[in-house]
Amino acid sequence: MNTRILILILAALPAFAASGPSPCASNSDARQLDYWLGDWTVGTATAPNTGHSEVSLSLDKCLLTESWGSDTTNHQGKNAIAYNPEDKTWYGLFVDNHGRVHALKGTVTPGSAEFMGPSRDENGKIVLNKVKIVRVNQDNVEQVWQKSPDNGASWTTDVRMLYARKYL
Question: What's domain 3-165's architecture?
């Protein structure tokens, strides 16, 4: 091969590799949970500021990951959430160090997300789980976990967590 042609090909390779922003970074649907990004103190109405959470993006902004933990117990977990543009659906995998794993799918609109999916209770009976992640304002987010033993006819709140943005 001619050396000159080889040099031209090698010089052009970076242009092919840098084809613009990732599809996730430029997709407004995939950016709808960005309000949740950041470092947070987490608690409940009766036990404020008893936990922490860090929500970040990876994989060229295609994967949102929450790393969370209690400041009073050893309870901790990681949540991985991503948007699939092929079926226009959000998917979430919620895992904690107590062995609980929830694979949920859902919808996200600006300022609000809702994920649902089945699991089993302590007796092995199927229950439906629902988690809502709602932007209250720029510095506050609320996450509510609910369960339904009757396929969504009735719901009980398992936990309501209040997030307050940390400022360093």
Answer: Beta Barrel (2.40)
Would you mind telling me the total number of residues written for the chain in this entry?
168
Quick one: DSSP state of residue 91? E
Contacts of 102 (CB under 8 A, 6+ apart): 92, 93, 94, 95, 117, 119, 129, 131
- pLDDT, one tens digit per residue, over 76-131 is 999 999 999 999 999 999 999 999 999 999 999 989 999 999 999 889 999 999 99
- pTM, whole model, 2 decimals? 0.85
Q: Please, which residues have CB within 8 angstroms of residue 142's CB and are 6 or more apart in sequence?
A: 132, 133, 134, 136, 160, 161, 162, 163
Task: Give the separation between CA 9 and CA 12, rounded to whole angstroms.
Answer: 5
Residues whose CB falls within 8 Å of the CB of residue 104, separated by 6 or more in sequence, listed in order: 91, 92, 93, 94, 115, 116, 117, 129, 131
8: left (phi over 0), alpha (psi -120 to 50) or beta: alpha
Under 8 Å between Cβ of 81 and 91? yes
Cα 110 to Cα 16: distance, rounded to the nearest angstrom = 34
